[in-house]
Amino acid sequence: MKMIAMLIGLSLGVAAWAQAPADPMKTGSAVTTVKVERMVAATGVKDREPVGEAATFDAGLFRVYCWSLVRAESVPAAIKHAWHLDGKKVSEIPLAINYARTRTWSSKAVRAGNWKVSAVTEAGEVLSSVSFTVTAAPAQ
User: Fold this and answer.
1) How confident is residue 102, by pLDDT bands cut at 50, 70 and 90?
2) pTM for this prediction
3) Is the link from the previous residue into 76 a cis peptide, with omega within 30 of 0?
4) In whole angstroms, what is the distance from residue 21 CA to residue 18 CA?
5) Pick from 132, 93, 96: which is nearest to 111 by CA?
6) Please, which residues bridge with residue 46 across strands?
7) Which of 60, 61, 77, 107 could staple 97 via S-S, CB 3.0–4.6 A?
8) Could you tell me the fold of the domain covering 31-135?
9) pLDDT reported for residue 2
10) Which of 3-12, 16-25, 61-70 has the highest mean pLDDT?
C-alpha cells in the first residue's frame, strides 16, 4: 500500500513538472520591451538629431527623414519603419536597436500626398507613428 501511495505521489509530481511552462530565457521566446519615446519627420539628421522638423514639406524636397528615439529593456532588438502614402504601405525599413537608448532613423524619397510612418515591432505591434503632408508643386 505504501508503494502504491509513493508511486501516485511520484507520478503527480512528474505530471506537474512536465506541465510547467518553459523558461523563456532558454527557449529564446522572451519578449523584449521596446518603446519609442519620440518620433518626428524632418528634412535631415545632424549629429544624430533631427533637423528641420515639420508636419508639411514642399514637393521640391526630395527626401524626408523619420527619426526615432527608442528605449529597449534588452538588446539587441529590432523595429521597422513602415512608410505609408495615402494609406498604402510603400516601404518597410528594418532598424537595429543595439543600445538601451538608441537614436535611429530612416529616409525615403517622397512625392506629394499624405504620409504616415509607423514604428513597428517584429511582432507587428505599432509603437508610435508620425504623419506629415508633402504638398504638390504649384502649376506653372
Assistant:
1) very high
2) 0.75
3) yes
4) 8
5) 132
6) 49
7) 77
8) Immunoglobulin-like (2.60.40)
9) 58
10) 61-70
Do 66 and 81 touch, CB atoms closer than 8 A? yes
Cα(37)–Cα(68) distance, integer angstroms: 8
Per-residue pLDDT, averaged over 41-46, amounts to 98
Amino acid letter for position 76? P
Strand partners, 95: 79
Place of cell 521640391: 60
DSSP string spanning the chain? -HHHHHHHHHHHHHHHHHHSPP-HHHHT-PPPPEEEEEEEEESEEETTEEES--SEEETT--EEEEEEEEEESSSSEEEEEEEEETTEEEEEEEEEE-SSEEEEEEEEE--SEEEEEEEEETT--EEEEEEEEEEPPPP-
Q: Tell me the domain boundaries of the chain.
A: 31-135
User: What is the β-pairing status of strands 49-51 and 63-72?
Assistant: unpaired
pLDDT surpasses 50 at 25: no
